[in-house]
């Protein structure tokens, strides 16, 4: 296993500092707790352009797409990244069913491709170390979605 460089560690710490910014932290908390949709139509109705929720969605997705872009260029040690970043997988799992519609609407097959690539690798890495963990996570998140829907 290649060793982690100081530059990679410093970049990870810098990305973590950005995650701690108050507004992004608020957006991330809202996203994980409240963002549940399976279509662009539902998203537009629940979280219309100009709403605080829509802003949160864009903040979270753009942050993680930026991080994924950095990762996909090999600037962060894979194992170090995967050991310390599970949230990106949750973010992707919440939008993976609507991304194809975004790509079609924007006529851009690369919309959120960086997050998708990272999450495929992360899921494979996780499954190798803990088989069944992705399915268990999805089941837990579905229970959270159903609980949020009831309240």
Can you describe this structure?
With 151 residues, the protein is mainly α. It has one domain (6-150). The chain has nine helices and no strands. Helix 4 crosses helix 8 (113-129). It is globular and about 45 Å long. The mean pLDDT is 94.
Keywords:
151 residues, mainly alpha, globular
Mean pLDDT over the full residue set = 94
Q: How many separate structural domains?
A: 1
By secondary-structure content and strand pairing, the structural class works out as mainly alpha
Count, helices:
9
- Biggest β-sheet description: none
Shape: globular
What is the CA-based Rg, rounded? 16 Å
Strand residues, percent: under 5%
Structure summary, number of beta strands? 0
Give the termini separation: 47 Å
Low-confidence stretches: none
Helix content: over 70%
One letter per element, helices H and strands E, the order comes to HHHHHHHHH
């Amino acid at each position: 296993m290649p060793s982690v460089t100081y530059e990679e560690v410093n970049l990870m710490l810098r990305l973590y500092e950005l995650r701690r910014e108050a507004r992004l932290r608020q957006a991330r908390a809202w996203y994980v707790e409240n963002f549940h949709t399976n279509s662009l139509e539902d998203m537009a109705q629940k979280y219309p352009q100009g709403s605080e929720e829509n802003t949160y969605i864009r903040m979270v997705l753009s942050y993680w797409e930026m991080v994924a872009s950095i990762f996909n260029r090999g600037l962060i040690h894979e194992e170090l990244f995967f050991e310390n970043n599970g949230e990106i997988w949750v973010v992707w799992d919440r939008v993976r069913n609507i991304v194809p519609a975004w790509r079609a609407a924007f006529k851009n097959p690369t919309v959120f491709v960086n997050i998708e690539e990272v999450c495929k690798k992360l899921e494979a890495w996780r499954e190798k170390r803990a088989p069944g963990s992705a399915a268990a996570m999805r089941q837990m998140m579905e229970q959270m979605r159903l609980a949020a829907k009831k309240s």
